[in-house]
Amino acid sequence: MWIAFWLVVVLLAAIGEIFTFDLFLGSVAVAALITAGLAAVLLPITVQAVAFGALSLVGIVLVRPALKRTLGIGSLAQEQNSVTHSHLQGRQGIVTQAIDTGEGLVRLGTGDFWTARPFDSTDTFQVGERIEVVYVDGLTALVERAHTLSINTTSGADDIAEPRQKGIS
């Protein structure tokens, strides 16, 4: 009777592993398969349960990380789940909430508002200062002072533009 139970656990864990491919349920499936073998030699259910728990733990804690590293699954999962905002690097904007040692708020372009903190931890920025995004850490822009930035107010747009020279339109 217990053999059938452990084989059902193997089947369910294997199906789950197919959908997740994280090797967590694969470890459980292997532990359940070995435990089904223990049930076949008529060991008591308490021995089977302890063996299943121990084998699952060993599989998840020791075997799974090594296997993921060997197969390259860990790095693939991290690449798929990582969010990069490299397109923001180099964009310029305006401080809309003061940035000190904590976080503040900046506007990039006409409506992208980002939490921001100084790239150099000793810098502070006041409302209205011009900044440039150096790096994005998660959902926070790391900024420094922009050197050639001005607001284009003559066109009615809130876009950030390069400074205009006198006599050139």
Please outline the helices and strands:
Elements: H1 2-20, H2 24-40, H3 45-71, H4 73-81, E1 92-97, E2 104-108, E3 112-118, E4 130-137, E5 140-145, E6 150-151, E7 160-161
Parallel strand pairs: 3-5
Antiparallel strand pairs: 1-2, 1-4, 2-3, 4-5, 6-7
C-alpha termini separation:
87 Å
Overall structural class, as computed from helix and strand content, comes to alpha+beta
- Quaternary assembly: single chain
Which sequence of SSEs, written as H and E, runs from N to C?
HHHHEEEEEEE
Which band does the percent of strand residues land in? 15-25%
**What value does the average pLDDT take?**
82
Shape: rod-shaped
Number of helices in the DSSP assignment: 4
Number of domains: 2
* Total strand segments: 7
Major sheet, described briefly?
5 strands, mixed, barrel
Brief synopsis:
The chain is α+β, with helices and mostly antiparallel strands and 169 residues long. It has helices at 2-20, 24-40, 45-71, 73-81, and strands at residues 92-97, 104-108, 112-118, 130-137, 140-145, 150-151, 160-161.
